[in-house]
Amino acid sequence: MYPFHWVPAAGQRHASTDRRPEGALAYPSGTSVTTLCREQVIADNSEIGWLWPTCDSCNTEAHRIARELPTTSTGRSI
Ligand SMILES: [Zn+2]
Question: Where are the stretches annotated Disordered (predicted)?
Answer without folding.
Answer: 1-25
